[in-house]
Specification:
By secondary structure, this protein is α+β, with helices and mostly antiparallel strands. It has helices at 41-50, 63-71, 126-139, 158-161, 188-200, 232-244, 278-297, 304-315, and strands at residues 76-79, 93-96, 105-107, 113-116, 144-146, 171-172, 204-206, 213-217, 222-226, 255-262, 265-272, 317-319. The relative contact order is 0.12.
Length: 321
């Protein structure tokens, strides 16, 4: 058998890591290593794109409400204010909890943009994925939905696009009529989709007297879910102090039952009797906020009763994200 001739690699210019283009995972890596892209420079790119950002909304106006709209609220919208103002031909940009067909974004016929928040995100940074979607929506043709994709690892984030001084004022809706600009004259299939979505939505109301607290109605009982900005360990200590003292409730028949952990923040949850409305809980919530502020200010070691209360609260904590 003839011996195989040794193969020589053709000379090619050497590329730095920053110059390596993105190619298909199974294609040869452009760096010339002879390995597939996914096993070479694609590995670092994938890690950079999927590394989890624990608090993706940190630094945005209304971080607690961003978390609530992402995880807890069925139907809500917020008008967003961009740095430098809106581009020509874009009358408004609106963040929405969810859009029809789970679209990441929609450029409406009039040029306005709807940006969906409750979507699966391809990377570990929701803020970067949202910013990438928003930028593409601003450039999309009117009447066009924007499809999902993995945002570039070095792409901008919502913190780079939004006006840091702009107010973040969620409007909670009873249904999803905000999907269409003229619901009464919508096509039959759109009307049917709206009806299905509205039937599945849990009635929710945002409290006005405290920040980022949302009352919701379920068949057996009502709840208050309150997204709080305080460091988790300090907040749990404060809640334990109040719980051990019998001061963690929001009135007769109410009970602090645990908390969610979502996007780096803690969300205490109360069970409420079914007859307690959002209006009924406004004053008790404001009074609780004062008690909590005092408990947060305490540096005294937890008593045995408070440690037991803290352990119970920790055991009833559920991580949403």
């Amino acid at each position: 058998m003839a011996k195989k001739r040794p193969q020589t690699k053709a000379g090619r210019p050497q590329l730095t890591d920053g110059e390596i283009p993105v190619v298909g995972a199974r294609e040869p890596c452009p760096c010339g290593s002879g390995r597939r892209y996914k096993a070479c420079h694609g590995r670092a790119a994938a890690h950079a794109a999927t590394e989890l950002v624990q608090r993706p909304f940190e630094g945005l106006p209304g971080e607690c409400d961003w978390v609530a709209l992402r995880e807890l609220v069925p139907a809500a919208t917020v008008e967003l204010k961009l740095k430098g103002g809106l581009p020509e031909g874009v009358p408004s940009v609106t963040l929405a909890t969810v859009l029809p067909m789970a679209w990441p974004a929609l450029r409406r016929d009039d040029g306005s943009v709807l940006l969906g928040l409750q979507n699966d995100t391809p990377s570990g940074d929701i803020s970067r994925d949202l910013a990438d979607t928003l930028q593409r929506a601003l450039e999309a043709a009117p009447g066009t939905p924007v499809q999902a994709r993995r945002a570039p690892a070095d792409g901008v984030r919502m913190q780079d696009l939004l006006d840091a001084e702009g107010a973040f004022a969620p409007v909670v809706h009873s249904g999803f009529e905000f999907w269409v600009q003229d619901p009464e004259n919508a096509a039959p299939d759109v009307t049917a989709s709206l009806e299905r979505a509205n039937e599945a939505a849990i009635p929710t109301v945002k409290l006005t007297g405290v920040d980022a607290a949302y009352w919701c109605e379920t068949p057996d009982k009502n709840h208050l879910r309150w997204v709080m900005p305080h460091p988790e360990e300090r907040l749990l200590d404060a809640l334990a102090r109040l719980h051990a003292a019998g001061r963690s409730g929001l009135g007769e028949g109410t009970r602090l039952v645990g908390s969610f952990r979502a996007h780096g923040l803690t969300v205490p949850v109360w069970d409420l009797p079914s007859e307690i409305t959002a209006d009924d809980v406004e004053k008790p919530a404001a009074e609780f906020a004062e008690r909590l502020a005092a408990a947060l200010a305490s540096d005294a070691p937890l008593t045995p009763e408070e440690r037991r209360a803290r352990g119970g609260l920790t055991n009833r904590q559920v991580t949403l994200s």
